[in-house]
Amino acid sequence: MSAHYCNKPITGVTNNRKGTGEIFPRLIYNNKMKINRRLALLLISFLFACQPTTTHPAVTIIDNTKTITLQTDERVPSTLITPAGITLAPADRVLSNGLPIALDQLITNNTITLQIRHALNLTLVTPDGQKQIQSSVFTVGEVLQETGIQLSASDLLDPPADTPITNQIIINYSPAHQLTVSVDGKTLQIQSSARTVGEALAEARIPLLGEDISFPAGNEAPPADGQIKVVRVSESVILAQKPIPFESELVASADIPLDQNQILQPGETGLSVHRIRIRYEDGKETSRVTENETTVRPPKKRVLGYGTKVEIKTAIVDGVKIEYWRAVQMYATAYSPCRSGTSNCSYGTSSGIRLTKGIVALRHSWYLNMGGQQLYIPGYGRATVGDVCGGCVGKPWIDLGYDEDNYQQWSSWVTVYFLTPAPTTIIYVLQ
Prior knowledge:
Blueprint: H1 25-30, H2 32-49, E1 58-63, E2 66-71, H3 77-81, E3 93-96, E4 99-101, E5 112-117, E6 120-126, E7 129-135, H4 140-146, E8 156-158, E9 170-174, E10 177-183, E11 186-192, H5 197-203, E12 213-215, E13 227-231, E14 233-244, E15 248-257, E16 261-265, E17 270-281, E18 284-297, E19 302-309, E20 313-317, E21 320-335, E22 359-362, H6 364-370, E23 374-377, E24 381-388, E25 397-401, E26 411-419
């Protein structure tokens, strides 16, 4: 029976003995007891139909892939979860209609949907090391916030903050540091969480280009004091010409008179090109290296002929007619037995002849070849090579011997004539 009838008055039922009722007048007269019994049953049915029906609200609990529905008047999550047979770990969380809710918080919504989010195992790697944590938040950024890390725009986070977390995810976090960069004559302040100096400079749009260097080096970690110096390095290459001197070769020539030289082949200076690499650091030259040398034109050797042709000549010297085969300009000095550079007077000579006027000394190498050679020296007269002059080096030099009584001092250049006959062995080049 529909409950809406409960509020309607029951008509057609009366206890009037005179039969004024409109529905059952005849039945009441014939069988009064039967009608009263039926009327009582009818009234009882109306009373039960009009009683209110009690319906408990539905609560939906989602636990991973499992969905549980409860009919209950409870409005506190903890009293809803326990009857559902769900056990929560300390890091788990409950969501009511998608929003986090405390276990003892009263839910005021008419429709209740609880979601159980179980904690996942995560690894958080920071400059202080790595640690294992459990969290039931939704994103990487929320994990950092939950652990008390305030993420800034310059921090390095891998994976990104909006990445949903999954079980066993590894989160790498490097906070940004204040760095001072000295570059191009300026000092710049930058914030970076880069792992290396090179990465930090690239982030700040100060990349190391070409041969540029940094202190610390680009592959090193940013320094603890935050100080980074960038040195701009550039190089240039120049080509420099360099002359190559020619060599000279001395050859004997029988066509050239003795003690004369003649150029048989002129020499020619060569030319080489050097490739020079110049290095600049912050605009200042720091090195200059010759990488290679290329000969553009090789030098040409000069050939100089010295004479070996002996010619017999005559001359009148000091009024004396002489015949000679060589005449040489020599620097003349004089010595005597007591002026020979020793502490005692010495009359001995290398040839064994007693020192007197007419005995002259030459350097040792000349003496070995010219010992006994007859000479004529203007202002001195005839002489014989009979002694060694130990100090006669560096130039053509002759030391004229004297007695103590007729000693004369010499210190001048003089022409020395080598008298005939010419020896069989001749020093063609007097050096």
